[in-house]
Protein backbone atom coordinates (compact mmCIF):
# COMPACT_ATOMS: atom_id res chain seq x y z
CA UNK A 1 0.00 0.00 0.00
CA UNK A 2 1.30 3.47 -0.85
CA UNK A 3 2.20 5.62 2.14
CA UNK A 4 -0.12 8.67 1.98
CA UNK A 5 2.50 10.74 3.81
CA UNK A 6 4.99 10.35 0.98
CA UNK A 7 5.51 13.43 -1.18
CA UNK A 8 4.31 13.01 -4.73
CA UNK A 9 7.00 12.57 -7.38
CA UNK A 10 8.15 15.90 -8.87
CA UNK A 11 6.06 15.63 -12.02
CA UNK A 12 2.92 14.89 -9.98
CA UNK A 13 3.52 17.85 -7.68
CA UNK A 14 4.01 20.17 -10.65
CA UNK A 15 0.88 18.80 -12.30
CA UNK A 16 -1.13 19.32 -9.11
CA UNK A 17 0.13 22.89 -8.85
CA UNK A 18 -0.70 23.64 -12.48
CA UNK A 19 -4.17 22.12 -12.19
CA UNK A 20 -5.26 24.42 -9.35
CA UNK A 21 -7.46 27.31 -10.36
CA UNK A 22 -8.46 28.10 -13.92
CA UNK A 23 -6.22 26.21 -16.33
CA UNK A 24 -5.93 27.27 -19.95
CA UNK A 25 -5.56 24.80 -22.83
CA UNK A 26 -1.75 24.90 -22.71
CA UNK A 27 -1.71 24.41 -18.96
CA UNK A 28 -4.13 21.48 -19.19
CA UNK A 29 -1.92 19.84 -21.81
CA UNK A 30 1.12 20.26 -19.56
CA UNK A 31 -0.77 18.62 -16.68
CA UNK A 32 -1.73 15.63 -18.86
CA UNK A 33 1.83 15.24 -20.13
CA UNK A 34 3.30 15.38 -16.64
CA UNK A 35 0.86 12.81 -15.28
CA UNK A 36 1.49 10.55 -18.25
CA UNK A 37 5.23 10.79 -17.57
CA UNK A 38 4.59 9.82 -13.95
CA UNK A 39 2.54 6.81 -15.04
CA UNK A 40 5.16 5.80 -17.62
CA UNK A 41 7.94 6.07 -15.04
CA UNK A 42 6.27 3.50 -12.78
CA UNK A 43 5.32 1.28 -15.70
CA UNK A 44 8.94 1.15 -16.86
CA UNK A 45 10.11 0.36 -13.33
CA UNK A 46 7.66 -2.54 -13.13
CA UNK A 47 8.68 -3.75 -16.61
CA UNK A 48 12.33 -3.94 -15.57
CA UNK A 49 11.32 -5.67 -12.32
CA UNK A 50 9.49 -8.34 -14.34
CA UNK A 51 12.47 -9.11 -16.59
CA UNK A 52 13.28 -12.81 -16.39
CA UNK A 53 17.07 -12.49 -16.44
CA UNK A 54 18.42 -14.18 -13.30
CA UNK A 55 21.86 -14.45 -14.92
CA UNK A 56 22.12 -10.65 -14.65
CA UNK A 57 21.09 -10.42 -11.00
CA UNK A 58 24.51 -11.06 -9.48
CA UNK A 59 26.64 -9.01 -11.92
CA UNK A 60 24.34 -5.98 -11.88
CA UNK A 61 23.92 -6.13 -8.12
CA UNK A 62 27.70 -6.14 -7.67
CA UNK A 63 28.15 -3.36 -10.23
CA UNK A 64 25.54 -1.21 -8.52
CA UNK A 65 27.24 -1.68 -5.15
CA UNK A 66 30.70 -1.08 -6.60
CA UNK A 67 29.52 2.23 -8.07
CA UNK A 68 28.87 3.63 -4.58
CA UNK A 69 31.01 6.72 -3.93
CA UNK A 70 32.04 6.77 -7.63
CA UNK A 71 34.60 4.00 -7.06
CA UNK A 72 34.80 2.85 -10.72
CA UNK A 73 35.45 6.38 -11.93
CA UNK A 74 38.10 7.16 -9.33
CA UNK A 75 39.77 3.84 -10.12
CA UNK A 76 39.86 4.66 -13.83
CA UNK A 77 41.09 8.18 -13.08
CA UNK A 78 43.90 6.71 -10.98
CA UNK A 79 44.93 4.35 -13.78
CA UNK A 80 44.90 7.21 -16.29
CA UNK A 81 46.99 9.32 -13.95
CA UNK A 82 49.56 6.56 -13.48
CA UNK A 83 49.79 5.14 -16.98
CA UNK A 84 48.17 7.64 -19.35
CA UNK A 85 50.95 10.20 -19.60
CA UNK A 86 50.24 13.93 -19.64
CA UNK A 87 47.00 13.52 -21.60
CA UNK A 88 45.81 10.83 -19.23
CA UNK A 89 46.53 12.97 -16.19
CA UNK A 90 44.64 15.91 -17.69
CA UNK A 91 41.70 13.67 -18.55
CA UNK A 92 41.70 12.17 -15.05
CA UNK A 93 41.65 15.58 -13.38
CA UNK A 94 38.89 16.72 -15.71
CA UNK A 95 36.83 13.62 -14.94
CA UNK A 96 37.22 14.03 -11.19
CA UNK A 97 36.28 17.71 -11.46
CA UNK A 98 33.18 16.75 -13.48
CA UNK A 99 32.14 14.25 -10.79
CA UNK A 100 32.55 16.95 -8.16
CA UNK A 101 30.41 19.41 -10.09
CA UNK A 102 27.69 16.84 -10.86
CA UNK A 103 27.61 15.62 -7.27
CA UNK A 104 27.36 19.16 -5.92
CA UNK A 105 24.42 20.01 -8.16
CA UNK A 106 22.56 16.69 -7.83
CA UNK A 107 23.13 15.78 -4.20
CA UNK A 108 22.30 19.23 -2.84
CA UNK A 109 19.75 21.45 -4.64
CA UNK A 110 18.23 18.88 -7.02
CA UNK A 111 17.62 16.19 -4.40
CA UNK A 112 16.26 18.75 -1.96
CA UNK A 113 13.85 20.10 -4.56
CA UNK A 114 12.93 16.64 -5.88
CA UNK A 115 12.17 15.23 -2.41
CA UNK A 116 11.12 11.89 -3.88
CA UNK A 117 11.04 8.78 -1.73
CA UNK A 118 12.76 5.63 -2.93
CA UNK A 119 10.73 2.93 -4.68
CA UNK A 120 9.46 0.05 -2.59
CA UNK A 121 11.04 -2.99 -4.32
CA UNK A 122 8.76 -5.41 -2.49
CA UNK A 123 5.58 -3.58 -3.44
CA UNK A 124 6.73 -3.10 -7.05
CA UNK A 125 7.89 -6.67 -7.62
CA UNK A 126 11.69 -6.49 -7.74
CA UNK A 127 13.10 -10.00 -7.06
CA UNK A 128 14.96 -10.24 -3.78
CA UNK A 129 17.99 -11.71 -5.58
CA UNK A 130 18.61 -8.25 -7.07
CA UNK A 131 18.34 -6.19 -3.91
CA UNK A 132 21.10 -3.91 -2.71
CA UNK A 133 21.14 -1.71 0.37
CA UNK A 134 18.57 1.03 -0.09
CA UNK A 135 20.24 4.47 0.20
CA UNK A 136 18.88 6.86 2.80
CA UNK A 137 18.95 9.86 0.45
CA UNK A 138 15.99 10.95 -1.64
CA UNK A 139 15.50 9.26 -4.99
CA UNK A 140 15.31 12.10 -7.55
CA UNK A 141 17.66 12.44 -9.33
CA UNK A 142 20.14 9.55 -9.33
CA UNK A 143 23.55 10.60 -8.04
CA UNK A 144 25.17 7.43 -9.39
CA UNK A 145 23.89 8.24 -12.88
CA UNK A 146 25.04 11.85 -12.65
CA UNK A 147 28.58 10.86 -11.66
CA UNK A 148 28.75 8.13 -14.30
CA UNK A 149 27.61 10.44 -17.10
CA UNK A 150 29.81 13.32 -15.95
CA UNK A 151 32.94 11.17 -15.92
CA UNK A 152 32.20 9.36 -19.17
CA UNK A 153 31.44 12.56 -21.09
CA UNK A 154 34.29 14.65 -19.72
CA UNK A 155 37.01 11.99 -20.07
CA UNK A 156 35.63 10.89 -23.43
CA UNK A 157 35.88 14.48 -24.65
CA UNK A 158 39.51 14.62 -23.55
CA UNK A 159 40.41 11.10 -24.77
CA UNK A 160 38.03 10.19 -27.64
CA UNK A 161 39.34 6.62 -27.84
CA UNK A 162 37.83 5.98 -24.39
CA UNK A 163 34.48 7.61 -25.13
CA UNK A 164 32.57 4.49 -26.21
CA UNK A 165 33.78 2.08 -23.49
CA UNK A 166 33.23 4.69 -20.79
CA UNK A 167 29.73 5.44 -22.01
CA UNK A 168 28.91 1.74 -22.12
CA UNK A 169 30.12 1.28 -18.55
CA UNK A 170 28.20 4.37 -17.44
CA UNK A 171 25.07 3.02 -19.13
CA UNK A 172 25.44 -0.29 -17.32
CA UNK A 173 25.73 1.51 -13.97
CA UNK A 174 22.63 3.56 -14.74
CA UNK A 175 20.60 0.51 -15.73
CA UNK A 176 21.76 -1.33 -12.61
CA UNK A 177 20.15 1.34 -10.43
CA UNK A 178 16.72 0.56 -11.87
CA UNK A 179 17.38 -3.18 -12.14
CA UNK A 180 18.25 -3.44 -8.45
CA UNK A 181 15.18 -1.41 -7.52
CA UNK A 182 16.72 1.66 -5.89
CA UNK A 183 15.65 4.19 -8.55
CA UNK A 184 12.81 4.89 -10.92
CA UNK A 185 13.87 5.32 -14.57
CA UNK A 186 13.00 9.02 -14.37
CA UNK A 187 15.52 9.46 -11.55
CA UNK A 188 18.22 7.92 -13.73
CA UNK A 189 17.34 10.01 -16.80
CA UNK A 190 17.38 13.24 -14.80
CA UNK A 191 20.67 12.32 -13.13
CA UNK A 192 22.24 11.38 -16.45
CA UNK A 193 21.13 14.67 -18.02
CA UNK A 194 22.68 16.64 -15.17
CA UNK A 195 25.86 14.56 -15.48
CA UNK A 196 26.11 15.13 -19.22
CA UNK A 197 25.84 18.89 -18.72
CA UNK A 198 28.43 18.85 -15.94
CA UNK A 199 30.80 16.67 -17.95
CA UNK A 200 30.52 18.74 -21.11
CA UNK A 201 30.96 22.01 -19.20
CA UNK A 202 34.02 20.71 -17.37
CA UNK A 203 35.71 19.33 -20.50
CA UNK A 204 34.99 22.54 -22.41
CA UNK A 205 36.65 24.62 -19.71
CA UNK A 206 39.59 22.21 -19.52
CA UNK A 207 40.19 22.30 -23.28
CA UNK A 208 40.00 26.09 -23.35
CA UNK A 209 42.55 26.32 -20.56
CA UNK A 210 44.86 24.01 -22.49
CA UNK A 211 44.62 26.23 -25.57
CA UNK A 212 45.58 29.35 -23.66
CA UNK A 213 49.15 30.47 -24.26
CA UNK A 214 51.40 29.81 -21.34
Task: Walk me through what this model shows.
This protein has a single domain (54-211), classed as Orthogonal Bundle (Vanadium-containing Chloroperoxidase, domain 2). It has helices spanning 10-19, 25-49, 54-66, 71-83, 85-114, 143-158, 163-179, 185-211. The relative contact order is 0.15. It is an all-alpha fold and 214 residues long. The radius of gyration is 19 Å and the shape is globular.
Q: How is this structure best summarized?
A:
The protein is an all-alpha fold. The chain is built from eight helices and no strands.
- Basic shape: globular
Mean pLDDT: 88
Give the strand tally.
0
Total domain units: 1
At the fold tier of CATH, the topology name is Vanadium-containing Chloroperoxidase, domain 2
Please identify the structural class as seen in this structure.
Answer: mainly alpha
- The stretches of 5 or more residues where confidence is low (pLDDT under 50) are 1-7
Beta-strand percent range: under 5%
| Gross CATH architecture | Orthogonal Bundle
Largest sheet: none
N- to C-terminal distance: 63 Å
Order of helices and strands: HHHHHHHH
What is the number of helices? Answer: 8
The helix content is over 70%
